[in-house]
User: Fold this.
Amino acid sequence: MQLIRGNYVWIFRTRAVVTDRHFHHRAVLVAAALIVAYTSETTRAGGLPSTNTILAAEVALAQSDDECVVCHTNHTPGIVNQYLASDHYSNATTCADCHLVEQTIGGAVQHPESEFYVLPRSSSAMCETCHRTQVEQFNLSRHALPSYVAYAGSEGLSAEHQAIYASIPEGGFNPEAMIARNAIHKLEGPEFTRFSCESCHDVGKPNLDGSIGDCTACHIRHEFSLEQARKPETCNNCHIGPDHPQWEIYVESSHGIAYSTMGDSWNWEAEDGTLTTADFPAPTCATCHFSGFGGAPTTHDVGDRLGWYLAAPITTARPNFAENRLRMQNVCRACHSDGFIEEFYVSADAATESVNTFVRFSQAVWAQLKEANLVTAAPFDEPIDYVYYELWHHFGRTAKSGVWMQGADYAQWHGIYEIMQDCAELVEMANAKFEAAGLEPLVMPEGFPGIDAARAYLAAQES
Ligand code: HEC
Ligand code: HEC
Ligand code: HEC
Ligand code: HEC
Ligand code: HEC
Ligand code: HEC
Ligand code: HEC
Ligand code: HEC
Assistant:
């Protein structure tokens, strides 16, 4: 390959800058020509995009003097086609900008048949050169190090990473959840968890070059399309299943129904920070948690708009509770009235407190078992461990998410109903143990397993 000689990286960088400018002007001309071609083609072909996309790629490619693009058309045509369809291409961001690095960078490998080095797993450090704000916000969110620490623990983190972790406002919480989860991770073993915990939680794993996280968890390479990131299917890669069914809940909510029945006509590619109700008449996950919308600025720190720790066994307030809630309410406010939002938040707070009461009840029963030495210290070694755990971890969380994101079926039948069933089961299992040990069984207040009985039981315990 003749492309690069001598001081490879330096020469390439210089070349890249020079070619970029030509590249940019040319891309604009090509794009203009293509719009004409595309429009007439679409009309004729009845809107089928595939030939046009290929045509676009071919025309753009014929004009290209970026050697990476030209050669990779033969070796990785899929990547090149996606790249040519991206805003990166039309804004003169090159393959080299995201992949070309010095040999000394962690994770760098020598490019096949060349003397320059590339980072095959282009990292958030590469994005950071142009998207500093997004990377900084991401690093301050629970999608970053807390996601990774959730299964790996914090022991292996470098001093620098420890400091970043400590600086995340809502980075703490939930030692009990962590211990239980990490125990499951260990019990299952690394052969398996590579395909389970890691697959979702590595969104925040430290990279070989020291940067944090995987931006492609939400921005599929190589289009990096805003439309894709804004669609809720992006989140359902991870926010799904019995312990965090936000996707299923969204699908059954009024918002999700608006999306699935009318989303085709929404303005998905509107520039960030410009979104209004004219573009999005109902919100997606991204609208409520990320997008600049209503009075809330765009953020990659998803904790910014959350008041509660809903994933915890007992939900407590986050630091900055009031400010965070206000930011979320400013999103709602673009479409709902103040009174509607206020009423919704007051009711959802009360429902959250109900779930807390049931979980506290289960903890009180558990404490009595422990006191009598009737449960082992080992995690998940007997059926009662699973009942006690799923009560808050699956059903408590599901109920709370169902409430906050308007999924009535999840709030009800996959949520609070299952919680009551687990309360009944937990007490029956506990009493079998008390009786087997020759101890008095627990006596439940009238109305058990209802909310009033749970409250009465806790009140009696406290007095
Ligand atoms: C002369 C052809 C050619 C040129 C020019 C070229 N590449 Fe490649 N590149 C290849 C081939 C062949 C592979 C190996 C593909 C495979 O494994 O299927 C490759 C692999 C890669 C990989 C993956 C490496 C790995 O170990 O997984 C990256 C990233 C990459 N190229 C980026 C670039 C960048 C950036 C440029 C421009 C600076 C570039 N390439 C220029 C042919 C080329
Ligand atoms: C905006 C940044 C960006 C641009 C521009 C970009 N890439 Fe990538 N590329 C990435 C990211 C991110 C990954 C995925 C890294 C990972 O696996 O976590 C990736 C992965 C790859 C891979 C390895 C993965 C695979 O599927 O084989 C190759 C090869 C590659 N890119 C080549 C290219 C080529 C060639 C171009 C230009 C046509 C290009 N990239 C442009 C960011 C970029
Ligand atoms: C060399 C600079 C550069 C690098 C490196 C870079 N980008 Fe970009 N990115 C841009 C520019 C320029 C735009 C277009 C901005 C605009 O439209 O306002 C853009 C746009 C985007 C968009 C929005 C796309 C759209 O449709 O408007 C996303 C998402 C994105 N980049 C993600 C990434 C990710 C993830 C990485 C790292 C893997 C990355 N970028 C690396 C310059 C870069
Ligand atoms: C399908 C993707 C997925 C899988 C698989 C998964 N998680 Fe999670 N995990 C999540 C999501 C999403 C949340 C956030 C839930 C919420 O906030 O409602 C989460 C939350 C957590 C939390 C609570 C937050 C915290 O940091 O304290 C822990 C701990 C955790 N996961 C550990 C694990 C472990 C250990 C495994 C494997 C045994 C695992 N997870 C498997 C997606 C996943
Ligand atoms: C958990 C999902 C998720 C992850 C991970 C993620 N993003 Fe995004 N990103 C989004 C969403 C959603 C949007 C659209 C926001 C909007 O509507 O304007 C977005 C938009 C963007 C944009 C367009 C400009 C903007 O701010 O809206 C850029 C650039 C971007 N992301 C870069 C990154 C980089 C760099 C990383 C890695 C550090 C990253 N993203 C990780 C979800 C994510
Ligand atoms: C690759 C997996 C993955 C994807 C994709 C993903 N998330 Fe997450 N998300 C997680 C994990 C893991 C957590 C829990 C982190 C923790 O608390 O340890 C999480 C937590 C969250 C939280 C709670 C953060 C907090 O401070 O407690 C919100 C809100 C969230 N995600 C929204 C989204 C949205 C919206 C999208 C889509 C645009 C998305 N996520 C895409 C894995 C993912
Ligand atoms: C109408 C706005 C809205 C939509 C749409 C929405 N959410 Fe939420 N989400 C909320 C609110 C409100 C909360 C709770 C806020 C609080 O704690 O103050 C929340 C909480 C969460 C949490 C729990 C964080 C924790 O404390 O553990 C996660 C995770 C989450 N959302 C992810 C998603 C995902 C994924 C989607 C799409 C499938 C989605 N959300 C759709 C408004 C929304
Ligand atoms: C982009 C506009 C938009 C945003 C932002 C938005 N909503 Fe909605 N919301 C709607 C639409 C449209 C409906 C469907 C109304 C209907 O069913 O007629 C709806 C329905 C609802 C409903 C169900 C009402 C009913 O009568 O069935 C609730 C509750 C709700 N939204 C709460 C919220 C909350 C809380 C937020 C902020 C966290 C929020 N919404 C943000 C547009 C929005």
The beta strands are 100-101, 109-110, 117-118. The domain at 226-336 is CATH 1.20.850.10 (Hydroxylamine Oxidoreductase; Chain A, domain 2). The CA atoms of residues 35 and 52 lie 10 Å apart.
